[in-house]
C-alpha cells in the first residue's frame, strides 16, 4: 500500500512517501512549516521521483496534533484536499505518538515533548515496542507538572525536551535520558509506520472526523470567550 504522509505540527515539518514497509522518499521542510507552497512542492517532487500521480497513492496520512495551530491546520487541509481530489482514504494520528516512534523497542519509557509556549508543553509518555503504547495520554501542561509523573528511566525527545533540558535534568536527575539530536526531529516517515498499521486494520479516518487536536483553546477562542463574558 502506497501512503503519502504529512506532518506540519512543529518547527520541523516533513512529507514521506512509502510503499508498505519501504520508504520511497522523504522531504524535511525545516522552519517554514506553514508555507503551503513549499509543502505542495515537496509532495509533487516526491510523487515525481516515484513516477506516481496523486491517484497512484492508496491512502493519505497526517498528524492531527497537538502542535502548531496553524501548522496542523495546513497539514490536515492538504490531506483532505488530496483525499477528496483522488477519492482515496485518509488516516490521522497523534504527532506525539509519531515522535515517540523515533525510538521503537526502547527499553525505557519515552516522553515526547513539544514546546507549547506560555510556559507549557505538549507531552505524553509511551512504551515503545513495535508501536508506541500510551502510558500517559497526550496533554498540555506546565513542564514541572509533567515531570512530577516521572518515576522511572525516561527518554526525553522533541523541541520541548530541548528547551527544558536543564529543568528536566534538575528535576528527575539520573532518570532522564537525552538521545542524540536527530531523535528530536518529528518525521513523517515515523508517522507512515503508524498510518500503515491503521490502514492494514482498515482503521481509516472519515474526512469529517479528520480534525486538529489542539488540547487547548486558540488565542482567538480565548479572546472570544472574554468578550462574551463581559
From TrEMBL:
GO biological process, alphabetically ordered: tRNA threonylcarbamoyladenosine modification
One function term, GO molecular function aspect: transferase activity
A single GO cellular-component term on record: cytosol
Gene3D superfamilies with a match to the protein in the record: 3.30.420.40
First and last residue of the signal peptide: none
Domain Gcp-like: 36-223
Classification via InterPro entries: ATPase_NBD, Gcp-like_dom, T6A_TsaB
Keywords, comma-separated and alphabetical: Transferase
Membrane-spanning intervals of the chain: none
UniProt key word Lyase: no
Name under which the protein is recorded: tRNA (Adenosine(37)-N6)-threonylcarbamoyltransferase complex dimerization subunit type 1 TsaB
Amino acid at each position: 500500500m502506497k501512503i503519502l504522509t504529512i506532518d506540519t505540527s512543529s518547527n520541523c515539518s516533513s512529507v514521506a512517501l512509502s510503499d508498505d514497509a519501504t520508504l520511497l522518499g522523504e522531504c524535511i521542510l525545516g522552519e517554514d512549516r506553514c508555507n503551503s507552497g513549499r509543502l505542495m512542492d515537496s509532495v509533487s517532487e516526491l510523487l515525481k521521483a516515484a513516477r506516481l500521480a496523486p491517484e497512484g497513492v492508496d491512502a493519505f496520512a497526517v498528524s492531527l496534533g497537538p502542535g502548531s495551530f496553524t501548522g496542523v491546520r495546513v497539514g490536515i487541509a492538504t490531506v483532505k484536499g488530496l483525499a477528496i481530489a483522488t477519492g482515496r482514504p485518509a488516516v490521522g494520528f497523534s504527532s506525539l505518538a509519531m515522535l515517540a516512534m523515533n525510538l521503537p523497542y526502547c527499553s525505557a519509557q519515552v516522553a515526547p515533548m513539544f514546546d507549547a509556549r506560555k510556559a507549557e508543553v505538549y507531552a505524553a509518555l509511551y512504551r515503545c515496542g513495535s508501536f508506541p503504547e500510551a502510558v500517559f495520554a497526550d496533554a498540555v501542561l506546565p513542564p514541572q507538572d509533567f515531570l512530577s509523573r516521572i518515576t522511572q528511566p525516561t527518554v526525553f525527545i522533541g523541541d520541548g525536551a530541548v528547551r527544558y533540558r536543564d529543568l528536566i535534568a534538575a528535576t528527575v536527575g539520573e532518570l532522564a535520558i537525552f538521545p542524540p539530536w536527530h531523535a528530536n526531529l518529528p518525521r513523517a516517515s515515523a508517522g507512515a509506520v503508524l498510518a500503515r498499521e491503521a490502514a492494514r486494520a482498515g482503521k481509516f479516518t472519515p474526512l469529517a472526523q479528520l480534525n486538529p487536536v489542539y488540547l487547548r483553546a486558540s488565542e482567538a477562542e480565548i479572546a472570544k470567550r472574554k468578550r462574551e463574558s463581559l
